Structure formats: structure tokens, C-alpha cells
Amino acid sequence: MSQQQLEKIEKEMFEIVGGRHEETEKLAKKSVSFWKEVIIRFAHNKLAIFGLIALMAILLMAIFAPIFSQYTYSEQLGLYNKAPSAANWFGTDDLGRDVFVRVWEGARISLFIGITAAIIDLVIGVVWGSISGLAGERVDNIMMRIADVLTAVPYLLVVIVLSVVLGNGALGDGLLPMIIALSVTGWINMARIVRGEVLSIKNQEYVLAARTLGANTKHLIIKHLIPNALGAILVTMTLTIPMAIFTEAFLSYLGLGVSAPLASWGTMASEGNNAITNAPWRLIFPALMISLTIFAFNAVGDGLRDALDPKLRK
Amino acid sequence: MAKKLLEIKNLTQYFGSSKEPVKAVDGISFDIYEGETLGLVGESGCGKSTTGRSIIRLYDITDGEIIFNGKDVHSSKSANEMKQFNRQMQMIFQDPYASLNPRMKAGEIISEAFDIHGLYKNKKERLEKVESLLEAVGLNKEHANRYAHEFSGGQRQRIGIARALSLNPSFIIADEPISALDVSIQAQVVNLLKQLQKELNLTYLFIAHDLSMVKYISDRIAVMYRGKIVEIGLADDIYHSPVHPYTKSLLSAIPLPDPISESKRTRIPYVHEELDESASLYEVADMHFVYGTAASVKKWQNT
Amino acid sequence: MSEPILQVKDLRIHFKTFAGFVQAVRGVNFELKAGETLAIVGESGSGKSVTSNALMKLIPEPPGIYESGEIIFNGRDLIPLSDKEMSKVRGNEISMIFQDPMTSLNPTMRVGRQITEVILKHKNVSASEAKKRAIKLLDQVGIPMPEKRYKQYPHEFSGGMRQRVVIAIALAAEPKLLIADEPTTALDVTIQAQILELMKDIQKTSNTSIIFITHDLGVVANVADRVAVMYAGQIVEYGTVNEIFYNPKHPYTWGLLGSMPDIDSNSDELLRTIPGSPPDLTQPPKGDAFAARNEFALAIDYEKEPPMFQVSETHFAKTWLLHPDAPKIPIPEAVAKRIEGYLGKENMLNGEKTIRN
Predict the structure, then answer these.
(1) Residue A46 resides in a domain
(2) Stated pTM of the model
(3) I need a surface site. Which of B51, B87, B136, C328 has the fewest CB within 10 A?
């Protein structure tokens, strides 16, 4: 640490001009709201953006492909187990139906089940979790034990019982028992997460500050709890949808799904499995769609979680 | 003598099961006079923050009375009465990061109380009030549209102070308001609190573990240990003629920015003595009280 | 005079963030001799913790970047070392104590095993010998009933006792250098005093060098032989503890000393503060980074970064005020008065002036 050679500096430069501390209080960066910042961070995540694009594409195809296709999902073309061609992009099945249009018809069912189940989970989970988190210890204990008991109910049993009770096909072609079965236990995860968020937020100093200002419970929920728990709820929901889609596919694969001629990806894969040697496309395409959708939802969910993580905030 | 603004009588706050309660605050009594600053010091877990939160009704107390301006705080039940009380007593929190809602702008944070109390419904009026509060704490109106995370720790704490001032309170509980701040910023905030006290005639309960800052800001100091106030008196008396061995030990442990005296410092270790039932606060000098039995206080005074 | 055990030369560390590159450490130089304690003092964001983490090569890359510099420990530059080579240095030759004792202990492992693990990894001894040494260490750091405590889990210890365990682990391999990053900040003052005493005792017996990171000037005065004051990623003043406290030269050091209340200070006076906020290190200001908050800022401060001016053989300060052409600014009154008070008390006791500038 030796003294540096002093270069010649003009004397005037050594006049006291004083500080400019007001300038240091200025916030130089442009004001960015929390959610804008989340979007920017999300956009930096290549995998998440890929997932988002894939989901948009699947959604658009699910809506429009069956409308614009020259075939319908139940139309029998008389060409059995035909390999993919220019006329039938994904080939045909054993009854001569176009697999391409059936895959997108199936997408409608899979996505409908996934999203509906997620919305039901959201509503029940948020209400249950917030009450559990806000109410006192005793109410909380009772509510969480009920949730624990429900976790132990196997949904396979529920879906079989419901199918029998509601009658397969009687209501929405087997969709209803499926959705109910998925919802019986599905909301518990959401409820636990919301409860955890509420418990941690309600002891944050900004909530205590609002209470000392005289805020009532309604004010606390609207101004503090919801805005701060929204991120976790959103991530959980994004990750619930693929879970529901997968469970639906799994149940359909076991033959407990929607009834013919409707077909979800799970039933198609199940039927395709029997023809794996002579018509593999009947398994490959629906299986591919299941994988892609689940992967895309997970990529978006993980991307959202990373974008929301305050530890990375600068 | 100034008027008593706050009287705490036998304040008791237990947590956990009734069989084996955690005695966070174990029957303490003290008064706070109008216009003064009472410093409440003690180590983490001694019950000083719980005391502050119990006074402002963030917790329902186990036992005792808290009388503010002649009215019992914990007995008033109606929402209207509570709001009246909220307007007079406010709190500044410790953590400048956790005490501001990250989804709200500074202006919204400061005007939150106006929504709750239905004040300044006129938009222009409200804006003016927010601006004057920002100015009072050394920020400017441009800051109103910024989110909490855009501010530095010291600036955030000033927003927290502006929020506490928004209802024009007469009494403010400052719960370790500077312990999370840098040294140079601590001085800014303490100066601000002092200036505001003079301008607005505020009374403070200043809770802290940093004894040198407490000495500087407080008129009187109360020392807490294991849920009890062990010594209370004028700041100078506590510092220069402490009686309770815990106070002596605490004072002997403060490091000073003076290397020579530091090299000679001897710490006085504290060994807790269990006292019998007769223990209470004894007046050892004018306004200077020590918790103990008659015999123990006498012994401490002579050592 | 002994050779320095550690030399840091022109250390620069940047972090890549969404907002751009944060220049956290901007050309830091210092050295440390065996058995000496260097305190690095500064406020949050001054780069003091980044500097100390860098010495252990604990900066994650990315987002961290070792932009330039050398960390010469025992004659060897640590920067080019691989992670594998570093793991032989960490915990063995250099060990570190962090602020929060709970996060540096494994909650599922008995404390005895956490200590013997380090001994067994770095020292060629048998398991029973390691246990003997671990118990001795627990005793050495002032934990009563070490044989019993050896078998307990971290949650069975109080905060101060936990930090003692952390210190025991840090000392297990008899390191030459101990880096303590705010080791007492989370502790109560009485516990802090005990831990500081312990660290000084250990240093006396083992001749370990210590780098002590803190923001508390009282703690610095207590432990340090030498002090480096950091601001905005640079060392702005460097000297012996007496030089820094009794003859400070940098206006930032004046500000730090002035903003601490004195036990005897009159509470009607306002504290001296450093106005404003520290600069944003994604775009460090031109010239002297402290200029904007410095009431004595010179015109040149806004143009050119000052060099390190030498005040004495051991004392350096990075401010243009020390340039021969600069106006002579005395130490601000409030700070000067306090120093006089301290020294006066001393003179009264000793009858002579012991402080050399």
C-alpha cells in the first residue's frame, strides 16, 4: 500500500463544494411494480416461456382443430388402423376414426377436467385454508385434522363408488364422477399452502401495523392477505392442473374414465396399448400429448415460482 | 410533575397452556408521563416487545390494567371506542423490511389508516396529507408512488414512522426501531424521532437492546429481566448509579468506541438470585426503583 | 517483524443481477500478520461480508465474478484454486464463523460429532483421539460439563452456547486464520462480551489470526489490532485501532464515530449524522464515492477518485483532504470533543500521553 505518485492537479479543484446528499435519496431506477417485475423475470426463463407457448398451442388446437377438421371424433372412415398420412396426420384407430381429431377432442376433455378440478381446489382450498389460518388454534386444529383424514381416502375408491352411484354416462359422460373424485382430496394441498401463507403473513409486522391502525379482518384479508398470498396460490394452481390431468389419464387408463365414443388422452392411450405392435401411433400420440402438457404446466409453474421468489429480488 | 399519560398496573402476559405458561411478562407496573421518553431495555426474550404489544392490544392480556388517559384500554370493547384509542396510540416496528407490505406503494401505506377510519375522503386533501407526512419524515412527494422494495432500510423506517404519525397520535411505542439499521442511519432515525417529539409533543415508549442509544433518547429507563422490571429510574441515575446487579452487568457489557477503555474493561457477570415472595419495587432514590426484597436491595446498594 | 500470513491485492468482485453488474468489491488491499486481529468495519452493502466470503472462495459463481485480484494465503494465491483444493483449505487452514449460530450447525447431528468430523477430515488421528480433542475444545470455549454436552443436539444449547460450539468447530482443525462475520450481532450484549473475551483468549494461546467483520464500532475497539473502514466496496481508511479511533482522517470515519451516542453526551443535542444514503453500486459515482454525503467534499471529489494517502507508517486514508493542496479541515468538533474526553480520562489516570499519532 504505497503512496501513489501524485499527479499535478489544479489548485481550484481543492475548493470545498460540500455534499449533495439530496441526490443520494433519489430513486434512480424506474418504478416497477411487483407483478411487472415478476413478468420480466418470468420472460427471462426460457423453459417457462417454452412451456407457456406449448400450452397456448395445445389450447388453441384443442379449441380449433375439431372445428376445422374435415372429420369428427366419432366419424368412422372405414380405414382401420391406418398409419399416419397426409389425409390422416396421426393415422386412424381400429374403428377407423381419425386419431388427429380424437387427440384434440381428448385435449378438450383432459384440459376441461384439469382446469375444472383446479378451480374447485382453488375455491375450497382458499376458503378452508384461510379460515383455518385466521381462526384460533382450536378451529385450526379441527379443520386440519379433517383434511388429514380426507387425505387418507383413496380416490380410486371414490371414483368407483361415484361412478356406480351417479351412474356412468348419466351425468356428463362420466366427467362428473371424475371431477368429484379428483376434488375430494385435491383441495387439501391448496388448503395447506394457503393456511401456511396466512399463518406467516398474519404475523408479519405490516399486518400488525394495520391492526394497530384499527383495521378489521375484512380489511386485512383484502389489503394484505390476498395480495401477498396470491403468488403461492397461483403457483399451486398451475401445478395442480397437470396433477389432475395425469390422474384423469391414469384413471381412464384403468377404464374408469369418460365413456365412448368420447375419449380423453388416458382412454386413447389405454386402447392404443392393445395395438402397440401393429398401430403404435394410437398409443404414441396421446401419450406424447399427456407428457407434453404435464411438462409444460410444470415448466410454467416452476418458472412462476422462481419469478415470485423474493430471495432473488434486488 | 407532568401528567401521567399511561399507567400500567400489574401487567401480566402468559402464553401457551395454562398448566405450564410461558411467563413473558410477569406482573409489571410503571407509569409513562406526558411528553417524556421511557426507554425499555433488556435482552432478547425478556418480555420487552411483548410489553409493548400488550399495551397496544395486539395481545389480549392475561391480567392487569393498562390505563391510557384515564381509560382502561383492555376493557373498552366497541369498535368505535377501539378506533378512538387507535388514533391516540401508535407503533413503530423493528424490521423495516417486514413492516411494509411489499405489494403497496409508499403513499398507500401511509394513507392506509385513512381508509380504515374514513378520513380525508377528498382525493386532493388526502394527497396533501400524504405529502405533508412524507415531508415530515424527510422524504418527498415523488416517493409516494414507489413500492416498498425500492427504498433503503432507513427510508423504509421513515415510511413506517410516517404511517404511525398518520392519525396524529399522542403516544408512540417504538419497538426496536433502529436495531435493524446501519449506524449512520440509526442516528438519522433517532434524530428524526427527537425532532418529531418536540414538534408534535409526542410521548414515547422506546424499546431497545442497544443501551447507549436508549440512554441518549430516554428521559427515564426501565430495565427488564425475565418478565420483570428490575430497575427503573432517570436515565442518568440508571447509568451512573445502578443498583440491581443485572443492570450493573448489562452496563458493564456495552462496548464503547474507545480502544483504551475497552482494553481495560472488566465485565461484571450476573448470577440470578431467586427472591422470596416479599420482593417488590423499592425506592432507592427519588424516582429510582429497584425490584428485590428489602434485604437484597440494601445489600446491592452497599456493593 | 513477522511475514504477513494473508495478503489481499486489488480484489474486485462483481455480481450479475437483473439490474446490471453490482460492483460489490472495488479494489481492496490489505494484509494480516500472524496472531493479529483485523476488523473490517462498514455498513450493509459496503462489501465487507463479500470480501470475507471471497477469502474463503464462498462467492457463488455465477452470479459472482472474481473480476481481478489476488488472495495470497501462506504464499499461495487462492483465487485460481479449484473447489476440491479449496475444500482442503476451508475448515482446516482458514475457518469461518457466521452471524447466526443456528444456521451453521446441523440440527440433526450431535455437537460432538460435528466437531470430530472436522478433526477427522483434516487431522490424521484416531476416532477416540478426535473425541478427546473435541471434549477439550468444548471445555476450552467455556462450555460447562463438556462430556455431557458432547452428546447433545444444537437445540439443547442457548444462543450464546451455540455460538461457542460454532467457535469450537471453527477451531477444531487449528486454523491459522479465523474469519468471523458479525459473530456477535445476533447475541445479547452480555453474551457478546463473553464471546469477545473468549475469542481474545483463544488468540492469545493459539496465535491464530482473526478477521473480524462488524458494523459495531464498540466491538471493533474491543477486539481489533488493526482496522479497515469500508465504504461502497473500498477500504477508505486503514490503520491501527488507536489511529482509527483517536486520529481518524477520513470524513466517513468521522461520520461513523459521530453518529454513535456517547454515554455522557447531552441528549438535547442532535446526533451528528451522515446525511443521505450509500450509492448504488451498479453505477458507482464518478470520483470519490462518499463525496455526495460529505459536507467537506472538494470539487475534485466529484471528478477523480482519491488515492490512498499515507498518514503514518501504518495509517492510510483515501480522501483528497490529505492532498498537500487541500484545505486543512479539522476533525468535526463533536467527534474531536469525544476523543479528547476519552484521552483525557486516560491522561488523568496515567499522567502522560500514551497515544502516538
Answers:
(1) yes
(2) 0.83
(3) C328
